[in-house]
Design brief:
The protein is mostly helical. The protein is built from ten helices and no strands. The protein starts with a helix and ends in a 5-residue tail after the last helix.
């Protein structure tokens, strides 16, 4: 997506003062509530402003249209997931490879599932509000953190290359999309998480195995 097109979704301005930050946070939460209760087609700036308890004029100071509202909510959600992965990677540096993979996979799954209803709703509207570019940007953050973590693994011959990290992240992302879109039970989510850890760990062990 061209940068000029992506920029059309971005907020008009960033809050600086605490009061402005509270207003933007209220608008963001209201956007989520209206999206979940009304759906994307019936989400309007007027409904969001009413739910947030602000005037439409105040909302327009930050967001020019509903696409900008949804873009901001999606960006925030993806940033939270990337931050969870980054934190897990930082905490697990220099640990055994198996522990690294387990912590990262679980952090990714848990961040996505903390509000599964929101994650699913955002998957559905992402293509219309610059989602692919945002997903790519957040994914790059996560993969950069994973790469830096794996480079400190004490029990591998050499760290995995970019392709291996891309493969692992694709497995994580694809599994989560399947979980969200099929609406599996909490017990099945736990089973998927356990098996995703096993899948990613087995793959990384294979590509980083010590040579005899």
């Amino acid at each position: 997506m061209p940068t000029s097109t992506l920029n059309s979704f971005e907020p008009r301005k960033t809050p600086v003062q605490a009061r402005a930050t509270f207003t933007v946070d209220s608008i963001s939460e209201a956007t989520i509530q209206v999206l979940l209760s009304r759906g994307a087609e019936r989400l309007t700036t007027t409904r969001v402003a009413e739910r947030a308890g602000v005037s439409v004029g105040t909302l327009y100071q930050y967001y020019p249209n509903k696409q900008s509202l949804l873009f901001a909510v999606l960006e925030n959600n993806l940033n939270q997931v990337a931050s969870a992965v980054e934190a897990a990677c930082e905490q697990t540096r220099h640990k055994p490879l198996s522990e690294m993979i387990k912590n990262v996979v679980e952090a990714f799954v848990d961040a996505k599932m903390s509000r599964a209803d929101i994650s699913l709703a955002l998957y559905q509207i992402a293509p219309d509000v610059g989602g692919p570019a945002l997903v790519k940007k957040a994914g790059q953050r996560s993969k950069k953190a994973i790469k830096a973590m794996l480079e400190t693994a004490p029990d591998t011959e050499s760290p995995p290359d970019k392709f291996a990290i891309d493969m692992m992240f694709a497995a994580m992302s694809g599994t989560m999309r399947h979980i969200l879109e099929t609406g599996v039970s909490p017990a099945m989510v736990r089973k998927f998480r356990e098996n995703l850890v096993l899948l990613c760990e087995s793959y990384m062990v294979a590509v980083t195995a010590r040579r005899p």
